[in-house]
Design a protein that fits this description.
Oligomer: single chain
Strand order of the largest sheet: 3-2-1-4-5-6-7
Distance between the termini: 53 Å
Largest sheet: 7 strands, parallel
CATH superfamily: NAD(P)-binding Rossmann-like Domain
Number of helices: 11
Structural class: alpha/beta
CATH architecture: 3-Layer(aba) Sandwich
Shape: globular
Number of strands: 7
Number of domains: 1
Order of helices and strands: EHEHEHEHEHEHHHEHHH
CATH class: Alpha Beta
């Protein structure tokens, strides 16, 4: 039986990924920062008699990651698949967002991934077999307010994972980067909340998220893609997922950097008209 270690499994994409792999016959090591948040997953495990073991692991901590992953390997043997899913988001303008938020996002979304990769790679490399799947974002290719800090962490992840893929391919370790668009998770809904920012861009992208979430894309779509990748033999690096992913990526790629800056610098009415023309979305709140 193959095994998978998944980070950030208390809710959202991580929660659904744990269920998808378990239902597909994997032994699942589901990790999360706070075991108090494990009740929903534990209930599902019990109801379906799934082969899932929940572990406490904080990806922000060197000691926590090292101790947890070493314990799993010692108790259960090889970890065949690592899914780096744990992530956080803080939104706001660069001027107004506290430095502590910038640091917290990088600690979890970037350094947390590195910690987990470094902990599993020795046994994957020695066995010349493994699969490392990383949850990035369309935000790893499109930087915009109010997600500047989050985008920075995902841009960094893009660079890291691209380098990793080249390093470990000679050892038969496959590496994938998932690029979800707007997915129906708490994180996405948080972006829609009103703000008292001095910068109009902070509210505008929240309105775009709000409109997209009226036709929600479930996190299970991302989970099922990761299960498919783990079970396959593809060496494809990047995997956009969700109905908004490719349109957003194509939209940004079609613009020069200067055009992208000008798009974001528009007045509210100009910006609303541009979005409606490009995507057919009326993101004017209250209309």
């Amino acid at each position: 039986m193959k095994s998978v270690l998944i980070t950030g499994t208390s809710k959202g994409i991580g929660f659904e990924t744990a269920l998808s792999f378990a239902r597909g016959g994997y032994k699942v090591f589901a990790t999360m920062r706070n075991l108090e948040a494990a009740s929903t997953l534990q209930k599902q495990i019990t109801e379906e008699s799934l082969n899932v073991i929940i572990y406490k692991m904080d990806v922000d901590s060197d000691e926590s990651v090292k101790h947890c992953i070493q314990s799993i390997i010692e108790e259960h043997g090889i970890i065949d698949v690592l899914v780096n899913n744990a992530g956080i988001e803080r939104h706001g303008s660069i001027e107004e967002l506290p430095m502590s938020d910038f640091k917290a996002i990088m600690e979890t979304n970037y350094f947390g991934v590195i910690r987990c990769i470094q902990a599993v790679l020795p046994q994957m490399r020695e066995n010349k077999n493994g699969c490392i799947i990383n949850v990035g974002s369309v935000a790893g290719k499109i930087s915009n307010t109010p997600l500047s800090a989050y985008c920075a962490s995902k841009f960094a992840l893009e660079a890291l994972i691209e380098s990793l893929a080249g390093e470990v391919k000679p050892f038969n370790i496959r590496v994938s980067l998932i690029q979800p668009g707007i997915i129906d998770t708490k994180m996405a809904h948080d972006v829609t909340k009103d703000s008292n920012s001095k910068y109009p861009q902070v509210l505008r992208f929240g309105a775009m998220f709000e409109e997209s979430l009226k036709q929600p894309t479930p996190p299970s779509m991302v989970a099922d893609l990761m299960f498919e990748i783990a079970n396959g033999d593809s060496w494809q690096l990047r995997h956009p997922v969700g109905p908004t992913a490719l349109p957003f990526l194509g939209w940004r790629a079609s613009l020069t950097d200067e055009e992208w800056v000008d798009f974001n610098a528009q007045t509210d009415e100009e910006w609303f008209n541009s979005v409606e023309t490009t995507f057919g979305m009326n993101v004017r709140r209250g209309k």
